[in-house]
Amino acid sequence: MVSYKKINSFALVSLYNKKNINFLCNVLKKNNIGIISTGSTSKKIKSLGFACYEISRLTEFNEALNGRVKTLHPQIYISILHNRKNKNHRETFKKSNFPKIDYVIVNLYPFTKFINKKHEDVIEMIDIGGSTLLRASAKNYESVTSISSPEDYKFLKNNIQKNYGGTDLAFRERMAKKTFKLTFEYDQNIYNWIAQKNNQSDVKLRYGENPNQKGVLRKHKSKSILDYQVQGKEITFNNILDIDSGLDFLSEFSEPTTVIIKHNNACGVCSSKKIKSSFIKAFNSDKKSAFGGVVLTNKKIDKDLARLIVKNFFEVLVSPGFSKDALKILSERKNLILINSNKIPKTKKETSRSVRMGSLIQQNSNLKLSKKNFNIVSINNKLSKRENEDVLFAFKVVKHIKSNAIVLVKNKQTVGIGAGQMNRYDSTKIAITKYKENFSLKNLVCASDAFFPFIDSLKLLIKNQCTCIVEPSGSINDQKIIDFVNKNKLKLIFSSLRVFKH
């Protein structure tokens, strides 16, 4: 390799994101700009066939603390920061016996991509050396070019060509401005992460699930659901659980939809062209269970709907907005808790449960269901438009019902729900009982959150006007189920997803 003393200008290259690195090295090579680099970047550059001086060889200081210290060395910063017009600076640089760095090309560890990882992983993604190199080069932009993004390599190439092997002041200033903006935002993200961790605080609730149990709401951000209460009595532990459950249901739907929650399960769900009709049908799904429930809508509540709501007793009403007239009407029920959900996140990234000696944490089931998730496996395979819509609607609902879950649907309205039983047959019986109490419809769609292992539940469904069934596949008895369905001329759809919820 040619001695670095025969090269007049160098680029210090340290890249986490090695996108377009071959393009960059070609630009530097064609313009006789030497490359100084760090560990993995140096190996990559050499593997591509380009000459490269490793920093540790030049400073005679090996990387330390598992890579936390690589570029924090006086010789490097003397080279970058010395004022080329200042005689004393030039003499100090000359004594350092180090290559002259005129380009600093660095991209930072992707901190924000790691903020939901383990604490120790997040800490290691706080870039110290990279930020310092960029800030040093940007400070000395009168002489040094700082490049902080792979997207700028093409602009570097064009500017060097335009200026016959160097860069002009306007370009260096523009890149410095971009660098300081980047490092400012980077530090802001780190600050926000630490602040969020420290902002966890407990809000004391009246009690937990029962009066003999203490309860608190532990906030993980600066705000909680309590900050969106518009009116009503003090919100309780159980209210919060029901609201959170209801928001999970609503996250599945964009058309006007109402869900009524009791004990974290839906007792009525309906999608309709108007939010008023969706409320009426959700309420009529199971009026008895709806008493004292939590009502959630995904559209703003106006005065007409408010008048209907106050005719019945509910604990909580959640909506993305209330008209002035609606608020006036709803204020007649002073204890009715109103929550404006407009700025509450529609989904959550994970769910957790405290268990002995630890916590169980899982990715939340946020996958959006569509017709692509279903496959008709019965001989009778012609679904009407209504059946297609009801299959998707029913499966969206059953996804959020406690298992074993059975949901009966007609015209995007739940007409029977069975939940939380120790076997699927009992859940089926409960769903049918609810249906018989309130409806006399035919050609129902049934959704199950997991496969039917036996035909006993199917026999019940056939006797009670169900003609179309959607369930996940995966049972050793799948073929027996298909054979039974075909024999009885039912329609059977297999889902590629299981949506079992304990």
Strand order of the largest sheet: 8-13-12-11-9-10
The fraction of residues assigned to DSSP E strands is 15-25%
Overall 3D form? elongated
Q: What is the SS-derived class?
A: alpha/beta
> Domains counted in the coordinates: how many?
3
Question: How many runs of DSSP E, i.e. beta strands?
Answer: 21
Summarize the structure.
The protein has 502 residues and is of the alpha/beta class. The chain has helices spanning 21-30, 39-47, 55-59, 74-81, 87-96, 119-124, 129-139, 153-162, 169-198, 237-250, 275-285, 287-290, 303-309, 324-330, 385-398, 424-438, 456-463, 478-487; strands at residues 10-15, 34-37, 53-54, 101-107, 145-147, 201-204, 216-219, 229-231, 257-262, 265-271, 293-297, 314-319, 337-340, 350-355, 358-363, 374-376, 406-409, 414-418, 444-448, 466-472, 491-495. The radius of gyration is 32 Å and the shape is elongated.
